[in-house]
Design a protein that fits this description.
InterPro entries: His_Pase_superF_clade-1, His_PPase_superfam. The chain is α/β, with parallel strands linked by helices. The chain is 38% helix and 18% strand.
């Protein structure tokens, strides 16, 4: 469905939901398949400069063994909360790619490397790409401070930021296509909050 048609249909459904006093408007809208969830993830715990076996290029810095296991536990809890991306876009940096692979392994989803998620992520390019996928659950895996600013731009005016510890994931809900400033922060989970 094209974006304009989807927006018009969404507007009509919202009016019906409001005037009919349907309890749980979001459930009503979701039942029509007009809700989109975007999961924004910061990469899991990676090695530091100067660690044994230094890799030289920062883009090659991998996740630690402990980071991999800890993130698996985070994802198992998020999967039980219905985190289910259809497509996972990731920065090509090793630590993000490994994080995205773990998301696909535990929660499902097809993996795509996107240069737009490398350091200095491009919001407009990511939004356009995500809307073109024509799916209801998309995940972006990137770096700080980019993920903080991207999320703030999706749910607000973009002047603030939302703190992302390593391994954090935020779910942003949209009624229709992804549009900056139109998202609702549905949940934001950290390993500490999840008891991992």
């Amino acid at each position: 469905m094209r974006s304009v048609e989807r927006t018009l249909l969404l507007d009509a459904l919202l009016r019906v939901a409001f005037t009919a006093t349907v309890s749980g408007t979001s459930t009503f809208i979701e039942s029509w398949g007009l809700t989109m969830y975007l999961y924004v993830a910061r990469h899991a715990w990676a090695g530091h400069y100067g660690d044994p076996g230094d890799w030289g290029d920062d883009s090659l810095r991998p996740l630690t063994t402990e980071g991999i296991e800890r993130y698996r536990q985070v994802l198992k809890r998020l999967r039980s909360a219905d985190m289910s991306p259809t497509v996972i876009a990731t920065s090509p940096y090793t630590r993000c790619l490994q994080t995205a692979e773990l998301i696909a392994e535990v929660c499902g989803g097809d993996l795509v490397e996107l240069e737009a998620l490398a350091l200095g992520a491009e919001l407009d390019e990511l939004v356009a790409w995500s809307n073109e996928q024509n799916v209801d659950h998309v995940c972006w895996v990137g770096h700080n401070p980019d993920v903080q600013h991207l999320t703030a731009s999706l749910v607000g005016d973009g002047y603030g930021s939302i703190r992302f510890a390593k391994g954090s994931v935020a779910a942003v809900r949209f009624y229709g296509d992804i549009e900056p400033g139109q998202g609702e922060l549905y949940w934001h989970a950290t390993a500490k909050l999840l008891g991992v």
